[in-house]
Amino acid sequence: MTHRIYFDNSATTPVRKEVVDEIMPFLTELGGNPSSRHYEGRVVRTAVEAARAKVAAALNADPAEIYFNSCASEGNNTVLRGYMLGLGKNTKKNHIITTAVEHPSIFNTAAALEKEGFEVTYLPVDGKGNLNLDDLRKAIKENTGLISTMFVNNEIGNIYPVEEIGKIAREHNILFHVDAVQAVGKIPVDVKKIGCDFLTVSAHKFYGLKGVGSLFVKRGRVLKNLLTGGHQEKGKRPGTENVVGIIGMGKAIELAVAELDEEAKRVAALRDHLEQRVLAEIPYTRVVGDPSHRVPTLSNISFRFVEGEGILLKLDTEGIAVSTGSACSSSDLKASHVITALNGDPEEAHSSIRFSLGKHSTLEDVDYTVDTLKSTISLLRSFSPIYDEFVNSDKH
Amino acid sequence: MNYTEKVMDHFLHPRNVGKIENPNAIGKVGNPACGDIIEIFLRINPEGIIEDISFETFGCGAAIATSSMTTEMVKGKHIDEALKVTRDIVAEELGGLPAEKMHCSNLASEALHKAINEYKAKYGLK
Question: How large is the ipTM?
Fold first, then answer.
């Protein structure tokens, strides 16, 4: 295959070589069940626990507070549904506060809880995608039991003030969950500094394997199990461990944290170069989100008058992978609820493209992408009826 | 389901794009909120033959490909023949469309029908 440019690292990242090397013995020779008492089992148990220690260290948690699971969707479901199940018939704390810009695994789970009789408040965001903490304070009620917010938004890259939210939650004796999926490896994640009770992580966002994640549960906090079964993960998450996934996750998070400072600087420079060139060289473009509170890897740009899927397909044929908040690229045909939440403008959601850079991105990749974008956008605009209308009006 | 080769061909090499000179029938459907706007321009001669046709489309790959396909299918045909072209026929001609694209992004035939029906009404044709 010819050289591909992969600017969709927020969707998933390729597995890094060090991770492959780390898991290889467990794919070939060391095939025991970590629950077994014999040598084969003990070797694997040791490796799984070493991985747990690495994940804990990366998040400034205690290894006993880390539970491995299958993915962040499971982690997020475990927190919301596990909290609900734990309440049982007690409806005194059946109000949850979350935001209008969460990942579907929170958004749709919260909606499912509403059907079960829970009350959910979705905090709005402003035109730049930021939360207003006064809205949070006002939303807190007598029966508020849980606040769940993301650390970093997956579509626009905004960083949310989880430390402040954590402080507010503690003041009101409310449990606090952070979906940190898009934060790990991009910005420091410290559960003690955040002051959260639960925190969700997924390995494939930082060059680990797909199908493995972890949930931080602060010591003393209890969530009802979603699954019943064996004693694995201290009885909290039954099922034989995804051994290679877990071991790979330990390696991946260790490297991600060690390289964070340097890599963040490098990628931010590339991202800024991409953004500056696009804004300067392609008219009617604008950054979606808040450039002053963003992860270094991501840029979401709207290209007025053209539809995102068209851009995505055209770039794909030129060797570039990006993603879009456009309805037309998703099977449910709904425009991104995140970008629509920013300004209520579905047209912007249809026209936005997310560029998410990563450790393999280079300056050549960025320059080639901008050059390709220039011709792509001008081609698609050349037969866009709304562009036609715009240039033939007096507005521009 | 992914796009067929034929859809990709029409998306990457759309036929009859832009605005023809002196169109005497125009049909526009869709709105930006749903993500698709399609405008079809026709020049119909006194015998009712579509002499020339073009489109402008804001929309996804399917919207652009179906617009291109529709114009190609009816160019040179009589308007009554053109009215027989429906979204299902366009989709079939393209080797199929993903199910979710059948309705929202396959509006070109509607724009075509709208243009022809308005033209007929204007000239008192049945």
Answer: 0.91
